[in-house]
Amino acid sequence: MDPDDLATVSPLTTRTIRRFGDWHADLTPPKDVVATRLDLAPGALFPTTPV
User: Which pLDDT score, from 0 to 100, does residue 15 have?
Assistant: First the structure.
């Protein structure tokens, strides 16, 4: 079978249709960095005693 013929009957078109849209990533760091802090009791995330 000719690959060009197969491309015309293929159900998945990838040349003209972008399945997930156009993605634009802005990798520049933010101008204002917000200082955040999570105050938890010791052992809140990883308890040392069996439950």
Answer: 66
